[in-house]
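CORE FACILITY INTAKE
Project code: CF-77B
Contact: R.S. (postdoc)
Sample description: multi-component assembly, four entities in total
Requested service: structural model of the whole complex
Turnaround: standard
Below are the sequence entries exactly as provided by the requester. Do not edit them.
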Amino acid sequence: MLTQETTKHPTLGRTRDPEGTRALLVENAFREIHAHGYAGSSLDRILANSGVTKGALYHHFKSKADLLHAVIDDAIRPMVMERWLRPLEESDDPIRALADSTRTFMGSCTPEELRCGCPLNNLAQELSGADEDFRKHLNRVADDWRAGIRAAFERGQRTGSVREDVDPAAVASLVFATFQGLSGSVKTSVDRKAVMAGLEVFLDLLEGLRP
Amino acid sequence: MLTQETTKHPTLGRTRDPEGTRALLVENAFREIHAHGYAGSSLDRILANSGVTKGALYHHFKSKADLLHAVIDDAIRPMVMERWLRPLEESDDPIRALADSTRTFMGSCTPEELRCGCPLNNLAQELSGADEDFRKHLNRVADDWRAGIRAAFERGQRTGSVREDVDPAAVASLVFATFQGLSGSVKTSVDRKAVMAGLEVFLDLLEGLRP
DNA sequence: GCGTTAACATACCGGCCAGTATGTATGAAG
DNA sequence: CTTCATACATACTGGCCGGTATGTTAACGC
Protein backbone atom coordinates (compact mmCIF):
# COMPACT_ATOMS: atom_id res chain seq x y z
CA MET A 1 0.00 0.00 0.00
CA LEU A 2 0.93 3.59 -0.34
CA THR A 3 2.34 5.71 2.42
CA GLN A 4 -0.52 7.93 3.36
CA GLU A 5 1.05 11.34 3.61
CA THR A 6 -1.26 13.94 4.97
CA THR A 7 -1.32 17.67 4.89
CA LYS A 8 -3.37 18.79 7.82
CA HIS A 9 -4.74 22.25 7.94
CA PRO A 10 -2.22 24.34 9.92
CA THR A 11 -4.90 26.26 11.74
CA LEU A 12 -7.28 23.40 12.17
CA GLY A 13 -10.78 24.61 12.77
CA ARG A 14 -9.68 27.74 14.57
CA THR A 15 -9.69 30.61 12.14
CA ARG A 16 -11.53 30.66 8.84
CA ASP A 17 -9.35 30.53 5.78
CA PRO A 18 -11.38 29.73 2.67
CA GLU A 19 -8.48 30.05 0.26
CA GLY A 20 -6.28 27.93 2.47
CA THR A 21 -8.97 25.28 2.87
CA ARG A 22 -9.52 25.18 -0.85
CA ALA A 23 -5.81 24.88 -1.55
CA LEU A 24 -5.53 22.17 1.08
CA LEU A 25 -8.31 20.18 -0.55
CA VAL A 26 -6.75 20.56 -3.98
CA GLU A 27 -3.38 19.42 -2.69
CA ASN A 28 -4.74 16.32 -0.98
CA ALA A 29 -6.99 15.58 -3.93
CA PHE A 30 -3.96 15.74 -6.18
CA ARG A 31 -2.12 13.21 -4.04
CA GLU A 32 -5.10 10.90 -3.74
CA ILE A 33 -5.83 10.99 -7.46
CA HIS A 34 -2.17 10.67 -8.37
CA ALA A 35 -1.91 7.55 -6.23
CA HIS A 36 -5.26 5.89 -7.01
CA GLY A 37 -6.43 7.44 -10.27
CA TYR A 38 -9.65 9.39 -10.61
CA ALA A 39 -12.06 6.47 -10.53
CA GLY A 40 -10.11 4.84 -7.72
CA SER A 41 -9.90 7.97 -5.61
CA SER A 42 -12.17 8.55 -2.67
CA LEU A 43 -13.55 11.87 -1.48
CA ASP A 44 -13.82 10.45 2.02
CA ARG A 45 -10.10 9.70 2.08
CA ILE A 46 -9.26 13.15 0.75
CA LEU A 47 -11.39 14.66 3.49
CA ALA A 48 -9.86 12.47 6.19
CA ASN A 49 -6.35 13.42 5.07
CA SER A 50 -7.29 17.08 4.88
CA GLY A 51 -8.98 17.16 8.26
CA VAL A 52 -12.09 18.83 6.93
CA THR A 53 -15.56 17.53 6.17
CA LYS A 54 -17.84 17.15 3.23
CA GLY A 55 -19.51 20.45 3.95
CA ALA A 56 -16.24 22.22 3.25
CA LEU A 57 -15.60 20.26 0.09
CA TYR A 58 -19.00 20.89 -1.43
CA HIS A 59 -18.84 24.50 -0.37
CA HIS A 60 -15.76 25.02 -2.53
CA PHE A 61 -16.45 22.50 -5.30
CA LYS A 62 -19.72 21.48 -6.81
CA SER A 63 -18.73 17.90 -7.62
CA LYS A 64 -15.88 15.42 -7.73
CA ALA A 65 -15.38 16.30 -11.38
CA ASP A 66 -15.13 19.98 -10.46
CA LEU A 67 -12.47 19.11 -7.91
CA LEU A 68 -10.46 17.31 -10.57
CA HIS A 69 -10.65 20.31 -12.86
CA ALA A 70 -9.24 22.40 -10.01
CA VAL A 71 -6.48 19.84 -9.49
CA ILE A 72 -5.55 20.10 -13.16
CA ASP A 73 -5.47 23.90 -13.10
CA ASP A 74 -3.94 24.52 -9.69
CA ALA A 75 -1.62 21.54 -9.21
CA ILE A 76 -0.78 19.76 -12.44
CA ARG A 77 -0.45 22.68 -14.80
CA PRO A 78 1.89 24.73 -12.57
CA MET A 79 4.01 21.64 -11.97
CA VAL A 80 4.39 21.03 -15.71
CA MET A 81 5.26 24.66 -16.34
CA GLU A 82 7.77 24.88 -13.53
CA ARG A 83 9.51 21.56 -13.99
CA TRP A 84 9.55 21.13 -17.73
CA LEU A 85 8.88 24.34 -19.55
CA ARG A 86 10.90 26.86 -17.56
CA PRO A 87 14.23 25.04 -18.12
CA LEU A 88 13.45 25.04 -21.83
CA GLU A 89 12.64 28.74 -21.86
CA GLU A 90 15.85 29.63 -20.07
CA SER A 91 18.07 27.93 -22.64
CA ASP A 92 18.93 28.60 -26.27
CA ASP A 93 19.89 24.96 -26.82
CA PRO A 94 16.69 22.89 -26.53
CA ILE A 95 18.44 19.56 -27.10
CA ARG A 96 20.85 20.21 -24.29
CA ALA A 97 18.11 21.62 -22.06
CA LEU A 98 15.96 18.54 -22.58
CA ALA A 99 18.87 16.26 -21.79
CA ASP A 100 19.73 18.19 -18.64
CA SER A 101 16.24 18.51 -17.24
CA THR A 102 15.33 14.87 -17.87
CA ARG A 103 18.53 13.56 -16.36
CA THR A 104 18.22 15.72 -13.28
CA PHE A 105 14.56 14.84 -12.97
CA MET A 106 15.14 11.10 -13.22
CA GLY A 107 17.88 11.40 -10.65
CA SER A 108 16.14 13.71 -8.24
CA CYS A 109 12.65 12.40 -7.77
CA THR A 110 11.78 9.74 -5.22
CA PRO A 111 11.00 6.09 -6.02
CA GLU A 112 7.49 6.83 -4.82
CA GLU A 113 7.10 9.59 -7.40
CA LEU A 114 8.56 7.38 -10.10
CA ARG A 115 6.15 4.59 -9.25
CA CYS A 116 3.17 6.91 -9.47
CA GLY A 117 4.17 8.19 -12.89
CA CYS A 118 3.37 11.47 -14.59
CA PRO A 119 0.15 12.89 -13.12
CA LEU A 120 -0.88 14.43 -16.42
CA ASN A 121 -0.29 11.26 -18.38
CA ASN A 122 -2.05 9.11 -15.80
CA LEU A 123 -5.22 11.16 -15.95
CA ALA A 124 -5.07 11.63 -19.70
CA GLN A 125 -4.82 7.89 -20.23
CA GLU A 126 -7.53 7.09 -17.74
CA LEU A 127 -10.09 9.69 -18.72
CA SER A 128 -9.58 10.68 -22.34
CA GLY A 129 -11.59 7.76 -23.59
CA ALA A 130 -14.43 8.24 -21.14
CA ASP A 131 -15.07 11.93 -20.60
CA GLU A 132 -14.79 14.57 -23.26
CA ASP A 133 -14.56 17.52 -20.87
CA PHE A 134 -11.64 16.00 -19.03
CA ARG A 135 -10.00 15.06 -22.30
CA LYS A 136 -10.17 18.63 -23.55
CA HIS A 137 -8.93 20.09 -20.29
CA LEU A 138 -6.00 17.70 -19.97
CA ASN A 139 -5.15 18.09 -23.63
CA ARG A 140 -4.96 21.84 -23.17
CA VAL A 141 -2.14 21.30 -20.67
CA ALA A 142 -0.47 18.82 -22.99
CA ASP A 143 -0.81 21.26 -25.87
CA ASP A 144 0.87 24.00 -23.87
CA TRP A 145 3.63 21.55 -23.00
CA ARG A 146 4.13 20.67 -26.66
CA ALA A 147 3.95 24.33 -27.63
CA GLY A 148 6.74 25.07 -25.15
CA ILE A 149 8.96 22.41 -26.67
CA ARG A 150 8.15 23.63 -30.13
CA ALA A 151 8.98 27.23 -29.24
CA ALA A 152 12.28 26.09 -27.77
CA PHE A 153 13.19 24.28 -30.97
CA GLU A 154 12.20 27.26 -33.08
CA ARG A 155 14.46 29.42 -30.94
CA GLY A 156 17.12 26.78 -31.30
CA GLN A 157 16.86 27.08 -35.04
CA ARG A 158 17.30 30.83 -34.82
CA THR A 159 20.33 30.55 -32.54
CA GLY A 160 21.86 27.80 -34.62
CA SER A 161 21.65 24.83 -32.25
CA VAL A 162 19.02 23.04 -34.34
CA ARG A 163 18.99 22.22 -38.06
CA GLU A 164 16.80 24.42 -40.21
CA ASP A 165 15.05 21.55 -41.96
CA VAL A 166 13.47 19.95 -38.88
CA ASP A 167 9.79 20.51 -38.17
CA PRO A 168 9.62 21.93 -34.63
CA ALA A 169 5.98 20.96 -34.15
CA ALA A 170 6.59 17.37 -35.16
CA VAL A 171 9.69 17.13 -32.98
CA ALA A 172 7.72 18.57 -30.06
CA SER A 173 5.03 15.97 -30.59
CA LEU A 174 7.63 13.23 -30.59
CA VAL A 175 9.57 14.50 -27.60
CA PHE A 176 6.41 14.85 -25.56
CA ALA A 177 5.17 11.39 -26.48
CA THR A 178 8.53 9.77 -25.84
CA PHE A 179 8.87 11.37 -22.44
CA GLN A 180 5.38 10.27 -21.51
CA GLY A 181 6.18 6.78 -22.69
CA LEU A 182 9.46 6.63 -20.83
CA SER A 183 7.85 7.89 -17.64
CA GLY A 184 5.22 5.20 -18.09
CA SER A 185 7.91 2.59 -18.52
CA VAL A 186 9.59 3.67 -15.32
CA LYS A 187 6.31 3.28 -13.54
CA THR A 188 5.71 -0.20 -14.87
CA SER A 189 9.09 -1.71 -15.12
CA VAL A 190 10.98 -1.18 -11.87
CA ASP A 191 14.07 -1.73 -14.02
CA ARG A 192 15.07 1.91 -14.07
CA LYS A 193 18.43 1.16 -15.67
CA ALA A 194 16.89 -0.17 -18.86
CA VAL A 195 14.58 2.81 -19.20
CA MET A 196 17.45 5.20 -18.57
CA ALA A 197 19.37 3.45 -21.33
CA GLY A 198 16.39 4.00 -23.62
CA LEU A 199 16.34 7.66 -22.66
CA GLU A 200 20.03 7.98 -23.46
CA VAL A 201 19.48 6.47 -26.89
CA PHE A 202 16.75 9.00 -27.52
CA LEU A 203 18.90 11.90 -26.40
CA ASP A 204 21.62 10.57 -28.68
CA LEU A 205 19.21 10.46 -31.60
CA LEU A 206 18.15 14.03 -30.86
CA GLU A 207 21.78 15.08 -31.24
CA GLY A 208 21.29 14.17 -34.90
CA LEU A 209 19.02 17.21 -35.21
CA ARG A 210 21.93 19.60 -34.77
CA PRO A 211 23.38 21.37 -37.84
CA MET B 1 -20.85 7.68 -24.43
CA LEU B 2 -19.39 4.56 -25.85
CA THR B 3 -21.09 2.33 -28.32
CA GLN B 4 -21.99 -0.71 -26.30
CA GLU B 5 -21.07 -3.58 -28.52
CA THR B 6 -22.13 -6.91 -27.22
CA THR B 7 -21.14 -10.45 -27.93
CA LYS B 8 -24.03 -12.64 -26.95
CA HIS B 9 -23.51 -16.29 -26.37
CA PRO B 10 -24.42 -18.02 -29.65
CA THR B 11 -26.11 -20.94 -27.89
CA LEU B 12 -27.70 -18.87 -25.18
CA GLY B 13 -28.65 -21.09 -22.28
CA ARG B 14 -29.30 -24.10 -24.48
CA THR B 15 -26.26 -26.29 -24.43
CA ARG B 16 -23.45 -26.13 -21.92
CA ASP B 17 -20.17 -24.80 -23.16
CA PRO B 18 -17.89 -23.91 -20.27
CA GLU B 19 -14.93 -22.98 -22.45
CA GLY B 20 -17.13 -20.86 -24.66
CA THR B 21 -18.73 -19.14 -21.70
CA ARG B 22 -15.35 -18.43 -20.20
CA ALA B 23 -14.02 -17.04 -23.47
CA LEU B 24 -17.15 -14.95 -23.86
CA LEU B 25 -16.69 -13.44 -20.42
CA VAL B 26 -13.04 -12.71 -21.10
CA GLU B 27 -13.89 -11.02 -24.37
CA ASN B 28 -16.58 -8.81 -22.89
CA ALA B 29 -14.44 -8.08 -19.86
CA PHE B 30 -11.66 -6.99 -22.18
CA ARG B 31 -13.96 -4.57 -23.95
CA GLU B 32 -15.44 -3.20 -20.74
CA ILE B 33 -12.05 -2.72 -19.11
CA HIS B 34 -10.54 -1.29 -22.27
CA ALA B 35 -13.31 1.28 -22.43
CA HIS B 36 -13.68 2.15 -18.73
CA GLY B 37 -10.44 1.05 -17.08
CA TYR B 38 -10.26 -1.55 -14.36
CA ALA B 39 -11.56 0.58 -11.50
CA GLY B 40 -14.25 2.03 -13.73
CA SER B 41 -15.39 -1.30 -15.11
CA SER B 42 -18.48 -3.03 -13.85
CA LEU B 43 -19.03 -6.76 -13.54
CA ASP B 44 -22.75 -6.23 -13.90
CA ARG B 45 -22.25 -4.54 -17.26
CA ILE B 46 -19.93 -7.31 -18.41
CA LEU B 47 -22.56 -9.85 -17.44
CA ALA B 48 -25.35 -7.92 -19.13
CA ASN B 49 -23.35 -7.69 -22.35
CA SER B 50 -22.41 -11.36 -22.15
CA GLY B 51 -25.92 -12.57 -21.45
CA VAL B 52 -24.87 -14.67 -18.49
CA THR B 53 -25.19 -14.17 -14.76
CA LYS B 54 -22.97 -13.82 -11.77
CA GLY B 55 -23.13 -17.49 -11.04
CA ALA B 56 -21.34 -18.18 -14.30
CA LEU B 57 -18.74 -15.52 -13.70
CA TYR B 58 -17.84 -16.67 -10.22
CA HIS B 59 -17.86 -20.25 -11.38
CA HIS B 60 -15.06 -19.50 -13.85
CA PHE B 61 -13.24 -16.74 -11.95
CA LYS B 62 -12.74 -16.33 -8.27
CA SER B 63 -12.70 -12.53 -8.27
CA LYS B 64 -12.66 -9.42 -10.44
CA ALA B 65 -8.88 -9.40 -10.16
CA ASP B 66 -8.76 -12.99 -11.38
CA LEU B 67 -10.86 -11.99 -14.36
CA LEU B 68 -8.40 -9.24 -15.21
CA HIS B 69 -5.51 -11.68 -15.05
CA ALA B 70 -7.38 -13.86 -17.52
CA VAL B 71 -7.96 -10.84 -19.76
CA ILE B 72 -4.24 -10.11 -19.74
CA ASP B 73 -3.31 -13.68 -20.60
CA ASP B 74 -6.06 -14.55 -23.05
CA ALA B 75 -6.80 -11.26 -24.78
CA ILE B 76 -4.05 -8.70 -24.37
CA ARG B 77 -0.98 -10.91 -24.66
CA PRO B 78 -2.12 -12.68 -27.85
CA MET B 79 -3.03 -9.34 -29.39
CA VAL B 80 0.42 -7.93 -28.67
CA MET B 81 2.12 -11.00 -30.06
CA GLU B 82 0.02 -11.12 -33.19
CA ARG B 83 -0.03 -7.45 -34.06
CA TRP B 84 3.39 -6.27 -33.05
CA LEU B 85 5.80 -9.12 -32.58
CA ARG B 86 4.98 -11.35 -35.53
CA PRO B 87 5.70 -8.68 -38.15
CA LEU B 88 9.05 -8.12 -36.47
CA GLU B 89 9.86 -11.81 -36.44
CA GLU B 90 9.06 -12.18 -40.11
CA SER B 91 11.49 -9.48 -41.20
CA ASP B 92 15.25 -9.15 -41.24
CA ASP B 93 15.03 -5.36 -41.28
CA PRO B 94 13.57 -4.29 -37.91
CA ILE B 95 13.60 -0.58 -38.74
CA ARG B 96 11.61 -1.15 -41.87
CA ALA B 97 9.32 -3.63 -40.14
CA LEU B 98 8.58 -1.17 -37.35
CA ALA B 99 7.82 1.58 -39.85
CA ASP B 100 5.53 -0.67 -41.85
CA SER B 101 3.57 -2.14 -38.97
CA THR B 102 3.06 1.18 -37.20
CA ARG B 103 1.94 2.93 -40.37
CA THR B 104 -0.48 0.17 -41.31
CA PHE B 105 -1.73 0.00 -37.73
CA MET B 106 -2.36 3.74 -37.47
CA GLY B 107 -4.14 3.62 -40.77
CA SER B 108 -6.19 0.51 -40.21
CA CYS B 109 -7.67 0.78 -36.77
CA THR B 110 -10.94 2.54 -36.07
CA PRO B 111 -11.28 5.93 -34.37
CA GLU B 112 -12.93 4.06 -31.52
CA GLU B 113 -9.85 1.90 -31.05
CA LEU B 114 -7.58 4.91 -31.29
CA ARG B 115 -9.58 6.75 -28.68
CA CYS B 116 -9.39 3.84 -26.27
CA GLY B 117 -5.62 3.57 -26.60
CA CYS B 118 -3.33 0.64 -26.06
CA PRO B 119 -5.01 -1.83 -23.67
CA LEU B 120 -1.69 -2.86 -22.18
CA ASN B 121 -0.55 0.68 -21.60
CA ASN B 122 -3.89 1.73 -20.15
CA LEU B 123 -3.85 -0.99 -17.55
CA ALA B 124 -0.17 -0.63 -16.81
CA GLN B 125 -0.57 3.08 -16.16
CA GLU B 126 -3.68 2.61 -14.08
CA LEU B 127 -2.60 -0.29 -11.94
CA SER B 128 1.18 -0.38 -11.71
CA GLY B 129 1.22 2.11 -8.89
CA ALA B 130 -1.55 0.44 -6.92
CA ASP B 131 -1.24 -3.33 -7.20
CA GLU B 132 2.02 -5.20 -7.32
CA ASP B 133 0.56 -8.42 -8.74
CA PHE B 134 -0.97 -6.60 -11.67
CA ARG B 135 2.20 -4.61 -12.18
CA LYS B 136 4.26 -7.80 -12.43
CA HIS B 137 1.80 -9.50 -14.74
CA LEU B 138 1.49 -6.54 -17.09
CA ASN B 139 5.21 -5.96 -17.04
CA ARG B 140 5.78 -9.55 -18.09
CA VAL B 141 3.85 -8.83 -21.28
CA ALA B 142 5.73 -5.58 -21.76
CA ASP B 143 9.03 -7.39 -21.21
CA ASP B 144 8.18 -9.94 -23.87
CA TRP B 145 7.29 -7.11 -26.20
CA ARG B 146 10.60 -5.39 -25.54
CA ALA B 147 12.44 -8.69 -25.87
CA GLY B 148 10.85 -9.18 -29.28
CA ILE B 149 12.03 -5.78 -30.46
CA ARG B 150 15.47 -6.45 -29.04
CA ALA B 151 15.72 -9.82 -30.79
CA ALA B 152 14.70 -8.19 -34.06
CA PHE B 153 17.43 -5.58 -33.75
CA GLU B 154 20.01 -8.23 -32.87
CA ARG B 155 18.99 -10.14 -35.97
CA GLY B 156 19.19 -6.89 -37.89
CA GLN B 157 22.75 -6.47 -36.73
CA ARG B 158 23.58 -9.96 -37.96
CA THR B 159 21.97 -9.36 -41.34
CA GLY B 160 23.53 -5.93 -41.72
CA SER B 161 20.49 -3.67 -41.51
CA VAL B 162 21.47 -2.23 -38.14
CA ARG B 163 24.76 -0.73 -37.00
CA GLU B 164 26.93 -2.94 -34.80
CA ASP B 165 27.50 -0.32 -32.10
CA VAL B 166 23.87 0.17 -31.11
CA ASP B 167 22.58 -1.45 -27.91
CA PRO B 168 19.56 -3.54 -28.97
CA ALA B 169 18.15 -3.67 -25.45
CA ALA B 170 18.29 0.10 -25.03
CA VAL B 171 16.78 0.67 -28.46
CA ALA B 172 14.01 -1.78 -27.64
CA SER B 173 13.28 0.07 -24.42
CA LEU B 174 13.09 3.34 -26.33
CA VAL B 175 10.99 2.03 -29.19
CA PHE B 176 8.52 0.47 -26.80
CA ALA B 177 8.25 3.61 -24.70
CA THR B 178 7.90 5.87 -27.70
CA PHE B 179 5.17 3.77 -29.24
CA GLN B 180 3.29 3.71 -25.95
CA GLY B 181 3.69 7.45 -25.68
CA LEU B 182 2.53 8.07 -29.24
CA SER B 183 -0.47 5.81 -28.79
CA GLY B 184 -1.27 7.75 -25.63
CA SER B 185 -1.00 11.02 -27.53
CA VAL B 186 -3.39 9.77 -30.16
CA LYS B 187 -5.84 8.93 -27.44
CA THR B 188 -5.61 12.34 -25.84
CA SER B 189 -5.08 14.69 -28.67
CA VAL B 190 -7.66 14.00 -31.40
CA ASP B 191 -5.15 15.76 -33.66
CA ARG B 192 -3.95 12.60 -35.33
CA LYS B 193 -1.95 14.48 -37.93
CA ALA B 194 0.41 16.00 -35.37
CA VAL B 195 1.02 12.65 -33.71
CA MET B 196 1.64 11.01 -37.06
CA ALA B 197 4.18 13.72 -37.80
CA GLY B 198 5.90 12.90 -34.53
CA LEU B 199 5.92 9.23 -35.47
CA GLU B 200 7.50 10.03 -38.82
CA VAL B 201 10.23 12.03 -37.10
CA PHE B 202 10.93 9.05 -34.87
CA LEU B 203 11.07 6.64 -37.79
CA ASP B 204 13.43 9.07 -39.51
CA LEU B 205 15.66 9.15 -36.46
CA LEU B 206 15.68 5.35 -36.38
CA GLU B 207 17.04 5.37 -39.90
CA GLY B 208 20.15 6.83 -38.33
CA LEU B 209 20.81 3.45 -36.75
CA ARG B 210 21.59 1.85 -40.06
CA PRO B 211 25.22 1.16 -41.03
C1' DG C 1 -25.80 44.48 19.74
C1' DC C 2 -27.84 42.55 15.47
C1' DG C 3 -28.78 40.62 11.29
C1' DT C 4 -26.65 38.44 7.40
C1' DT C 5 -23.79 35.71 4.81
C1' DA C 6 -19.86 32.89 4.08
C1' DA C 7 -17.60 28.87 5.81
C1' DC C 8 -17.87 25.19 7.35
C1' DA C 9 -19.75 20.53 10.35
C1' DT C 10 -23.07 16.60 10.92
C1' DA C 11 -26.05 13.29 9.51
C1' DC C 12 -28.05 10.95 6.19
C1' DC C 13 -29.54 8.89 1.43
C1' DG C 14 -30.00 5.99 -2.61
C1' DG C 15 -27.22 3.52 -5.80
C1' DC C 16 -23.95 0.66 -7.47
C1' DC C 17 -20.47 -2.35 -6.46
C1' DA C 18 -17.94 -6.87 -5.69
C1' DG C 19 -18.95 -10.86 -3.59
C1' DT C 20 -21.88 -14.88 -1.63
C1' DA C 21 -25.35 -18.32 -0.46
C1' DT C 22 -28.28 -21.19 -2.34
C1' DG C 23 -31.08 -23.31 -5.76
C1' DT C 24 -31.39 -25.86 -10.20
C1' DA C 25 -30.64 -28.12 -14.46
C1' DT C 26 -27.57 -30.60 -17.45
C1' DG C 27 -25.00 -34.46 -18.98
C1' DA C 28 -21.87 -38.10 -18.35
C1' DA C 29 -20.63 -42.27 -15.61
C1' DG C 30 -22.15 -46.41 -13.54
C1' DC D 1 -32.58 -45.33 -14.02
C1' DT D 2 -29.83 -43.32 -10.55
C1' DT D 3 -25.78 -40.67 -8.94
C1' DC D 4 -23.27 -36.87 -8.88
C1' DA D 5 -20.26 -33.29 -10.17
C1' DT D 6 -20.24 -29.47 -13.24
C1' DA D 7 -22.27 -25.36 -14.98
C1' DC D 8 -24.77 -22.28 -14.41
C1' DA D 9 -29.19 -18.93 -12.52
C1' DT D 10 -31.43 -16.22 -8.76
C1' DA D 11 -31.59 -13.55 -4.91
C1' DC D 12 -29.40 -11.27 -1.63
C1' DT D 13 -25.82 -8.61 1.44
C1' DG D 14 -22.80 -5.16 3.38
C1' DG D 15 -19.93 -1.55 2.22
C1' DC D 16 -18.36 2.36 0.10
C1' DC D 17 -19.41 5.84 -2.98
C1' DG D 18 -20.80 10.62 -4.52
C1' DG D 19 -24.08 13.75 -3.28
C1' DT D 20 -27.50 16.42 -0.28
C1' DA D 21 -30.22 18.54 3.38
C1' DT D 22 -29.75 20.80 7.29
C1' DG D 23 -27.54 22.66 11.31
C1' DT D 24 -23.96 25.66 13.41
C1' DT D 25 -20.52 29.13 14.01
C1' DA D 26 -17.46 32.74 12.90
C1' DA D 27 -16.60 37.34 10.87
C1' DC D 28 -18.32 41.67 9.13
C1' DG D 29 -21.36 45.60 7.98
C1' DC D 30 -24.38 48.68 10.28
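Facility notes:
- DSSP finds ten helices and no strands in chain A.
- Residues 118 and 144 of chain A are 16 Å apart (CA to CA).
Invoice: internal transfer
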